[in-house]
């Protein structure tokens, strides 16, 4: 059965809007019928991409009926998960089999397929993005056939398809390499920039996960580490003021009165107190992110990370941009996925955010040329301005991917105008 609706669609931040025909197939057969029926199709997950990957006024397929665990393998510690499953639900369901994802980011609202297709990641110098832990997947191709892809079956499609921006077909099931459930101990504290730059190279090896957030007008950063532990559960301490409420309040004040921004950012030390907590990984990774924003993120060679961050901080501070949100700095291990921003490159990931009520272009137009200077690759789900000619220079397997895509989808069923700009040299 196909449930066809004409609806307004927007992503989480509200920056991407469309009026597509939304189809929510209830079975694989219904999905295949829809794929064979319509000439132009995009697929949407939870709408957590900031770029226009899902934007279309044609057919938009929603996989909310494709949720849950299809099967699990205790011996290999793998689980095959339906593609529309949200990451927070995957954590809950995997726990029934004493399994957990190897790594996660601090947002767990995305669909699994959306997170995999865009190379979504957490942090950890020895930990790859989510897509690198995909052991296989079922894909509905442009002609409506369902094919299984792994290292042995359709191996080339497997290599390319783990990060494909939905341009090779629709993932319906994804086999994830997991690990036994594990606890993490979280430490959050303030750290001076001098201390950070002196010790970060050692800290990134010492801790399983490490990241920091820096405010352009504050001499201190918020440092977060996560490490495996056997210690008893320790709840996160109750904050005297909700961090998300505070973030929204300060972002609104900065928008309405930009001159207050330096003063507000220097108050970070008042509101951020050292804290520690212990919980299962799936519960401690995510943080509340209800204040909406738009985001630009680039991945750059690991040895260029601090230099790029310092230049970015200097540029945005000098320009006195009206941006309260901090800059986020993380580590990601390299992989072998053709269109991965981490292809054959251990990376630093730097993210710049702007409050959704403000024009992000003021900030992003200053930041992006700095990223380019360091040879950075954009996160596919975040905002950037690169087109096919520039992207081709950043990815050694670009031409092979495009040849495979053209073979699978000669009529460009899966391409919307945004993807045409990314993939086709004008």
TrEMBL record:
<keyword id="KW-0274">FAD</keyword>
<dbReference type="GO" id="GO:0071949">
    <property type="term" value="F:FAD binding"/>
</dbReference>
<feature type="domain" description="FAD-binding PCMH-type">
    <location>
        <begin position="15"/>
        <end position="181"/>
    </location>
</feature>
<dbReference type="GO" id="GO:0016020">
    <property type="term" value="C:membrane"/>
</dbReference>
<dbReference type="InterPro" id="IPR016171">
    <property type="entry name" value="Vanillyl_alc_oxidase_C-sub2"/>
</dbReference>
<dbReference type="GO" id="GO:0003885">
    <property type="term" value="F:D-arabinono-1,4-lactone oxidase activity"/>
</dbReference>
<dbReference type="Pfam" id="PF01565">
    <property type="entry name" value="FAD_binding_4"/>
</dbReference>
<dbReference type="InterPro" id="IPR007173">
    <property type="entry name" value="ALO_C"/>
</dbReference>
<dbReference type="InterPro" id="IPR006094">
    <property type="entry name" value="Oxid_FAD_bind_N"/>
</dbReference>
<feature type="compositionally biased region" description="Polar residues">
    <location>
        <begin position="10"/>
        <end position="20"/>
    </location>
</feature>
<dbReference type="InterPro" id="IPR016169">
    <property type="entry name" value="FAD-bd_PCMH_sub2"/>
</dbReference>
<keyword id="KW-0285">Flavoprotein</keyword>
<protein>
    <submittedName>
        <fullName>FAD-binding protein</fullName>
    </submittedName>
</protein>
<dbReference type="InterPro" id="IPR016166">
    <property type="entry name" value="FAD-bd_PCMH"/>
</dbReference>
<dbReference type="InterPro" id="IPR010031">
    <property type="entry name" value="FAD_lactone_oxidase-like"/>
</dbReference>
<keyword id="KW-0560">Oxidoreductase</keyword>
<dbReference type="Pfam" id="PF04030">
    <property type="entry name" value="ALO"/>
</dbReference>
<feature type="region of interest" description="Disordered">
    <location>
        <begin position="1"/>
        <end position="20"/>
    </location>
</feature>
<dbReference type="InterPro" id="IPR036318">
    <property type="entry name" value="FAD-bd_PCMH-like_sf"/>
</dbReference>
<dbReference type="InterPro" id="IPR016167">
    <property type="entry name" value="FAD-bd_PCMH_sub1"/>
</dbReference>
């Amino acid at each position: 059965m196909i449930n066809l609706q004409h609806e307004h669609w927007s992503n989480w931040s509200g920056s991407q809007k469309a009026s597509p025909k939304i189809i929510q197939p209830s079975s694989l057969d219904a999905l295949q019928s829809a794929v064979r029926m319509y000439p132009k199709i995009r697929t949407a997950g939870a709408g957590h991409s900031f770029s226009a990957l899902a934007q279309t006024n044609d057919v938009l397929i929603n996989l909310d009926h494709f949720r849950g665990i299809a099967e699990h393998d205790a011996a290999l510690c793998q689980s095959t998960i339906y593609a529309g499953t949200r990451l927070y639900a995957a954590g809950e369901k995997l726990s029934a089999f004493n399994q957990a994802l190897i790594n996660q980011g601090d947002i767990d609202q995305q669909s699994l397929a959306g997170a995999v297709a865009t190379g979504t990641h957490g942090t950890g110098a020895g930990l790859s993005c989510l897509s690198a832990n995909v052991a296989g997947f079922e894909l509905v191709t442009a002609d409506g056939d369902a094919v299984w892809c792994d290292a042995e079956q359709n191996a080339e499609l497997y290599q390319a398809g783990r990060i494909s921006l939905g341009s090779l077909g629709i993932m319906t099931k994804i086999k994830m390499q997991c690990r036994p459930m594990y606890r993490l101990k979280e430490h959050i504290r303030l750290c001076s920039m001098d201390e950070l730059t002196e010790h970060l190279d050692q800290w990134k090896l010492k801790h399983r996960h490490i990241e920091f957030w820096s405010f352009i007008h504050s001499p201190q950063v918020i440092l977060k580490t996560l490490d495996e532990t056997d210690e008893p559960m320790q709840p996160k301490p109750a904050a005297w003021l909700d961090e998300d409420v505070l973030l929204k309040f300060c972002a609104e004040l900065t928008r309405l009165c930009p001159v207050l921004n330096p003063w507000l950012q220097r108050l970070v030390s008042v509101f951020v107190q050292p804290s520690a907590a212990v919980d299962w990984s799936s519960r401690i990774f995510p943080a509340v992110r209800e204040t909406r924003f738009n985001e630009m993120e680039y991945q750059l060679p690991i040895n260029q990370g601090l230099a790029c961050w310092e230049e970015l901080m200097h540029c945005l501070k000098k320009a006195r941009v009206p941006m309260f949100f901090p800059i986020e700095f993380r580590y990601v291990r390299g992989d072998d996925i053709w269109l991965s921003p981490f292809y054959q490159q251990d990376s630093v990931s730097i993210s710049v955010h702007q409050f959704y009520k403000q024009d992000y272009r003021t900030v992003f137009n200053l930041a992006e040329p700095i990223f380019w200077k360091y040879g950075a690759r954009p996160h596919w789900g975040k905002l950037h301005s690169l087109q096919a000619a520039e992207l081709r220079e950043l990815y050694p397997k670009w031409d092979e991917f495009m040849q495979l895509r053209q073979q699978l989808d000669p009529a460009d069923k899966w391409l919307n105008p945004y993807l045409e700009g990314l993939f086709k040299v004008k």
